[in-house]
TrEMBL record:
Domain of life: Bacteria
Record flagged with keyword Nucleotidyltransferase: no
Record key words, sorted: DNA-binding, Transcription, Transcription regulation
PROSITE patterns (alphabetical): HTH_GNTR (PS50949)
Domain (HTH gntR-type): residue spans on this chain: 20-87
Keyword DNA-binding: yes
Organism encoding this protein: Sulfitobacter faviae
Matching InterPro entries: GntR_C, TF_FadR/GntR_C, Tscrpt_reg_HTH_GntR, WH-like_DNA-bd_sf, WH_DNA-bd_sf
Protein name (database record): GntR family transcriptional regulator
Length: 233
């Protein structure tokens, strides 16, 4: 009969699969725009502008803005003004402390769970990152650098810490784009090769130390960009 419903367990997998809700899709797209610096620090955003940029309705855009304000990725200044927050030196100090505390710990936990397959995936990601550097592809560099770190933190199997770190990345992502724009990708050294070597050795303590150095180096580069100084090596 027309009123009967088909048991979803009997549907083909493609039909039974749950699609990502539109509001979640819009949120993730806007989040990436902030994370990878497509929206610059201090830049204002409007619902109308984002509905055009994201080709989305006002309701999901409004919900995405609300969620990102709650996560600190956007700032509500009153009178309906919303902007991408600009980092201050005090904010950098807080971010640096939290990153240098949490990310090395996640890295040590990931090292203890590393497999050959996971290590090869990290190497492939780092190779893609290096290719983006060689090409001067700022967007590619930022995405691969985030993916490299995210893969490590996901391996740690510590979802609370990993989620906290992911929010921290939203806070400095736009400023990292400024660093790349000012100095170019070729002037942004990292410690990924040392980190991969520590993983290959199964040395969790060393991996944590290397990650701490990588984080400190990145935050120093952002601080130099804020001060208009040459990028430190």
């Amino acid at each position: 009969m027309g009123s009967e419903k088909t048991d979803p367990r009997l549907l083909p997998a493609a039909d039974a699969a749950v699609k990502t809700p539109i509001h979640q899709h819009v949120y993730e797209r806007l989040r990436k725009m902030i994370l990878f610096g497509d929206l610059a620090p201090g830049q204002g955003v409007t619902i109308q502008g984002l509905t055009t940029a994201l080709d989305a309705g006002m309701t999901p855009v409004r919900e995405a803005i609300r969620r990102l304000i709650s996560e600190g990725a956007l700032t509500h200044l009153g009178n309906r003004r919303v902007t991408v927050p600009e980092l201050t030196h005090a904010g950098l100090e807080e971010l640096g402390f939290m990153r240098e505390t949490l990310e090395p710990e996640l890295t040590k936990r990931a090292a203890n769970r590393m497999t050959d397959e996971r290590l090869n995936a990290l190497k492939a990601c780092d190779n893609a990152l290096n290719l983006a550097i060689d090409r001067g592809d700022v967007g590619g560099y930022l995405m691969q650098n985030y993916s490299f770190h995210r893969m490590i933190y996901d391996l740690a199997e510590a979802p609370i810490m990993a989620a906290t770190v992911d929010r921290l990345w939203l806070r400095f992502g736009p400023s990292l784009r400024v660093v790349c724009g000012r100095y170019g990708t070729s002037n942004l050294p990292d410690k990924h090769a040392e980190l991969l070597a520590a993983f290959a050795e199964g040395n969790a303590a060393l991996a944590g130390e290397v990650m701490a150095g990588d984080v400190a180096q990145g935050m120093t580069q952002i601080r130099a960009a804020l001060d208009g100084l040459p990028v430190p090596r």
